Amino acid sequence: QVQLVESGGGLVQAGGSLRLSCAASGRTFSSYAMAWFRQAPGKEREFVQGINANGGSTYYADSVKGRFSISRDNAKNTVYLQMNSLKPEDTAVYYCAAGRTYGRTFASNYDYWGQGTQVTVSS
Predict the structure, then answer these.
(1) Which DSSP string corresponds to the chain?
(2) Is 100:1 a contact under the CB 8 Å cutoff?
(3) What tens digit of pLDDT does each residue of 9-38 get?
(4) For residue 123, which of 9, 75, 83, 105 sits 20 to 30 Å off, Cα-Cα?
(5) What is the CB-side half-sphere exposure of residue 51 using CA atoms within 13 A?
C-alpha cells in the first residue's frame, strides 16, 4: 500500500514556474507507475503526465506539452512535476496518483491518490 502527499502548490503569475512534489510512503514505491492529474472547479479530473516505475518512460497530455515535465527519484520515494510557462487555464487542484500499470490516462486506472495541492495562475 502507498500513501501519497502532494506539496508545492501556490499562487503564481502567468508565465511563471512551479515545482510540485509528491512524497510517497511504502516499501514498494519503486514498483508503481505514477501520474499527475488535475481538476478545476466544475470540470472532470484530467490526466496531466505519467511516468513508469523506473522513470525511463513518460507521456503527457497535449495541453501541457513542452511546458510540464514529470520525473521521479525512487531513492527519495518522490515524484515531481515541473511546471513552466504557466497559463491561467492551468489553475486547478493537482493530484498525485499511483497505479500498477504504466500508460493509463483515466483516473479509474489508479489505485492510490494524494489529497491534492492547489495551483492558481493569475493573469
Answers:
(1) --EEEEE--EEEETT--EEEEEEEESTTGGGSEEEEEEE-TTS--EEEEEE-TTSS-EEE-GGGTTTEEEEEEGGGTEEEEEE-S--GGG-EEEEEEEESSTT--SGGG--EE---EEEEEE-
(2) no
(3) 999 999 999 999 999 997 789 999 999 999
(4) 105
(5) 22
